[in-house]
Design goal:
Elements lengths: L6 H17 L5 E5 L4 E5 L29 E5 L4 E6 L5 E2 L4 E7 L2 E6 L4 E6 L6 E2 L4 E7 L2
Antiparallel strand pairs: 1-2, 3-10, 4-6, 4-9, 5-8, 6-7, 8-10
Length: 143
């Protein structure tokens, strides 16, 4: 029998100790970043998840021609899933057209446009885990 501890058991023990410490303190949020891992935890009233921050490059502004168009409609995730793909910003879509695909437990689901218009912004990137009700993209209604 080895005197060394199993790394998996040690990791679980460490996580339990961290959670016990956090739950018994007045913490509001915790953001840990390492070379290959990033974790964010927040209590109700804690700050926004920095892992969901939209990078300036992915939040491309809509073309000026769209400024006079109608209101925006958010296309939201139907459940917790991974965003597989989404049509690019600037794509003109019709109501009922596929605009994105999400996957959960190896099952893909098509997300359809609720309105006709133009995709003006992505709020999630391909490969990102999205929460139930999180906005995937926004469509601006045709004028």
């Amino acid at each position: 029998m080895s005197l060394e501890k199993d790394p998996a058991i040690q990791a679980i023990t460490d996580v339990r100790a961290l959670l016990d410490t956090l739950l018994s303190s007045g913490w509001q949020e915790l953001h840990v970043v390492s070379d290959d891992t990033e974790i964010f935890l927040a209590r109700k009233g804690g700050g926004p998840n920095p892992m969901r921050a939209i990078a300036p490059a992915s939040a491309a502004a809509a073309p000026a021609a769209l400024a006079a168009a109608g209101p925006e409609t958010a296309v939201k995730a139907p459940h917790v899933a991974t965003l597989v793909d989404a049509l690019p910003v600037g794509t003109v879509v019709t109501a009922g057209q596929k605009v994105a695909t999400v996957r959960v437990l190896d099952e893909s689901e098509t997300i359809e446009a609720p309105i006709s218009g133009t995709i003006i912004r992505h709020d999630a990137a391909a490969g990102e885990l999205v929460d139930y009700g999180a906005t995937l993209l926004n469509i601006q209604a045709a004028a």
